[in-house]
Specification:
The complex is a heterodimer.
Chain A: E1 10-12, E2 21-24, H1 29-45, E3 49-54, H2 58-67, H3 73-79, E4 82-86, H4 87-91, H5 99-115, E5 121-126, H6 137-154, E6 157-161, H7 164-175, E7 181-184, E8 192-196, E9 201-208, H8 213-224, E10 230-233, E11 237-240, H9 242-253, E12 261-264, H10 268-276, E13 286-288
Parallel strand pairs in A: 1-7, 2-6, 2-7, 3-4, 3-5, 5-6, 9-10, 9-11, 10-12, 12-13
Antiparallel strand pairs in A: 8-9
Helix pairs in contact in A: 5-6, 8-9
Chain B: E1 11-17, H1 20-37, E2 40-45, H2 47-57, E3 65-68, H3 69-72, H4 76-93, E4 98-103, H5 111-131, E5 134-140, H6 146-155, E6 158-161, E7 164-167, H7 173-178, E8 191-195, H8 201-214, H9 219-239, E9 244-251, E10 254-261, H10 284-292, E11 295-301, E12 304-312
Parallel strand pairs in B: 1-5, 1-6, 2-3, 2-4, 4-5
Antiparallel strand pairs in B: 6-7, 8-9, 9-10, 10-12, 11-12
Helix pairs in contact in B: 1-2, 4-5, 5-6, 8-9, 9-10
The chains are: A alpha/beta, B alpha/beta.
Amino acid sequence: MPTPGHETPARAMQLATPGEHLCSFPRTDAERRRIAAVFVRAGLTAARKVLYLSDHSSEAMLAILRGEGVDGVDDAHRSGQLLLMDFASRYGPRGVFSAESAEGDYRAAAAVARDEGYPGLHIAGEMDWFARGAVPLEELVAWERGCTALTADLGAVGLCQYDRALFGPAACAAVAPPHTGVAEDDGSSPMAVLTRGPAGRFSLAGEVDASNAAALARALRARLRTGESVELDVTGLEFADLAAVRVLRNCARDLAPGQRLVIRKAPEHVRRLLDLMGWGDLGARLEVL
Amino acid sequence: VTSADPAALSHHRALLYASRDELVVRIGDFVGEGLQAGDETVLTATPATAAGVREHLGDASRRLIVAHTEAAYADPMRMLSDLAVRLNGRREAGAPRLRLATELVTDGWTRQKTRAVMQFEAVANVLYAAESVEALCAFDASALGGDLLHDVRRTHPLIVEGDGDAPSGAFDATAELLAERPATGPALDALRFPIQAEADLRPLRAYVRAEAQYQGVGGESLDRLLVALSEVALNALRHGRPPQTVLIWTSRGALVCEVRDAGPGLPDPLTGFLPPLGDRDDGRGLWLARQLCDVMRAYPLDPGFAVRLETALPGR
């Protein structure tokens, strides 16, 4: 028997970019938990808002993510960056599903995230609520197809977890193709981790170069669009190239009056790049401390 | 600004002086002429020479701008970038003509230092010609050995010696610029790291970081090497042709990283010497690497193109 989704390309969750709508077909609860952890970590470390829908209470889901070693889930949950919801509260009793109202919900959630200064949404759902004919298969496939368009439209990253035993091979094979990829864990840790703390405080760790500077730009610009000032602690920044420093400078250049971008604990090579490029002089708007 | 035919227009003179008195008088006359003509006039010299020139000029020296030669020549590639930026700003502001008098103190220059200064002098021809800068570089004739004298003649179209100006006869600034080919190739046991995509830059840095730390290079000089290498490798990926490879070895007390690709290399030998003006990133990689590394050489392979970055090993 072919693996569900064997014709849908595999895609590492660590590499997923806005607009990707992934599916997974875990065989065990352990596998499901691990996939959840990788997806949530990928969203949080990119400073995105993460919405995770399951049949668990938020306390139980937090315990699962903690158990899987995802750092900072409690802080993220407290700050509202990580929203944990159970399907019943989202969709009501099983079997009463309105695609139109679900789409409206997601659009509203994306708009709220944008207003809160997030660069986008990571939305994952454990699809048990839809199993065993609660929603007819054709309707589910149509919904997933619509979700691919919606995910692209919202610049979200989506993940739908279909329990292989619960849905059975035929349903799994049918729901895979509307997705853009089958979620994989490539085992990598993120190249850079941007953590969103309270009150506009971020910390940036790892490495930023031409390959991931755009993601940093998206996150900072999303936050700056709210009009608030941003403090970026770069104590853990091990490497930054010209593309990375250019992001900081361009964000600072485009600030609104009175808004500030403060870079804390910049390593010497970052200061030197700013200085060499003649960018150290953005006045009070870019403070490199 | 391009390197096309700088010789015709550059007023870039080398003064080969025979005595301290001659130095002070010649520089004094040169800057005095500029001050009288309303030029923005800058003297870069030792404190003793600057004092002598001031005395020679009397009251006229009030508008003379004085800089310290040792500080200015500490980092010739930095000085070159600052000059380019300054000239660009002056053009935009419609500033008066610039006149530069410089005393070069060649005592104790290493080969590396001499090479950097001569590259500065070579590229300066292009900048001076484009902006009608009057420049006089003073060298102690008795301190110039054969090689250094030849370099001075190659990089200065006019030579002031004895009675007056004469064409250098050996002027060839472009040859100086292109003299980047290293004397020796990579070591036979050089490590090879192929790169194919931007995602390979991070593992490349991890690899070089480990090797550098093993060789005792750390801290700020390692950070600078990694930025320079990353920018040069990115350049090779974006503008060069595959296959792109990084070679890593140690030689003569330096950790050497060389980025190679199969492309034709630079269309203009000036690329990487001058800071790209405006907001484009193209060409900045090589320029940044030259600012950050102890030694950088960009040179053609047959076929292909290589950029070599050298970082001094500590305590050697």
